[in-house]
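Issue 218. Parser rejects a valid record. Input:
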Amino acid sequence: MKEVSTMVCLALRRIARVHYLVKTASSVSRGHQHPGLGSRPAASDFAARGPPGSVVELLGQSYPQDDHSNLSQKVLSRVGRNLHNQQHHPLWLIKERVKEHFYKQYVGCSGTPLFSVYDDFSPVVTTWQNFDSLLIPADHPSRKKGDNYYLNQTHMLRAHTSAHQWDLLHAGLDAFLVVGDVYRRDQIDSQHYPVFHQLEAVRLFSKHELFAGVQDGESLQLFEQSSRSAHKQEAHTMEAMKLVEFDLKQTLTRLVAHLFGDGLDIRWVECYFPFTHPSFEMEINFHGEWLEVLGCGVMEQQLVNSAGAHDKIGWAFGLGLERLAMILYDIPDIRLFWSEDERFLKQFRLSDINQNVKFQPLSKYPAVINDISFWLPLENYTENDFYDLVRTIGGDLVEKVDLIDKFEHPRTHRLSHCYRITYRHMERTLSQREVTDIHQAVQEAAVRLLAVEGRF
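Output the parser choked on:
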């Protein structure tokens, strides 16, 4: 009880002060513009922005705040944890298994691994790295503040490990893996968390490398000037595209066979990514259920050219480590990856990273469920603002949040939302009184910070 009360007090104190992890910096305060009278900034601004002239201190760097800043204390507390680099953590096991596979299967001329691995890049990137370098249009919905964590208008926590792709290509690398934590504002349930971990791979081919094993390959070309179709880019010959696609699918088929075992049913679903074409999602039939495990495709030549590799063509894929670990190890709730409970961690201290292991559930404690209803403000409300607020106050005691009802008043046309919040402690039983304290804090903060009108 004391533990939960303390957590609520701390959360409310952080929200009341607003400028957690922020210090005044007069050197950056000049020219700060206040919102006009009568205007209400977006709720995420209240949740994250400090006073005029403040900065966020993160990983030894200072970032001036502006009207794009929307980081929560909950998310900031996860930066630098690097679960994928903690030995014997289930995410580390997946990373090491993929690394081992690529090191053994793909060897360069000198006998050294063909793919280099980068797993310690800072998660702070520029918006150019995260979006523009990957040809993501300026008006693309993936750039929204409601979906990302911005330090300010020019810097953010990466939304994908692809943010490092251009820099590594520009440095002259042809084959690499990038592993790291990524950050997205999202719904709250057992499959989603604002921080998760991705593994990205890229491989480029020169004309000689791609056509080396093809009869009369010296007469074939990588590039041509034609029109774009559903099957290829305008700059690629059909022969080059087909060989790259074949190599990509063979590479991924071997990888999932290494992870899940031979005899797996696989299917490829055509999809869209701004930085690959054609693009695919790979699905596997695991225990009778089709599961999406990764996205991939032939890299957009415009991206490759802009990084200086004009004479090469390549593929890229990205997968979620949590997704694979939950499937492989039967881990039912994504919050468990952040657990420091020895009963969880000791299950993955294996002498062999390829050893089969299935998570043995900790005692599942009962859930406590509370609903919250409110009238929405006329503008600047997004569901992700509410989810962030609930995470900040309730922390990992919140198992999921469901939007269970929407209502439009027939006369005033005001909109009302009703959310069902499921609270469950991973290590003990919660009392209704404990949850009531947290739930009331959520209600008060929603009214104060999101400008909703409570119906409670």
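Fixed in the parser; the record now loads. The longest strand covers residues 195-205.
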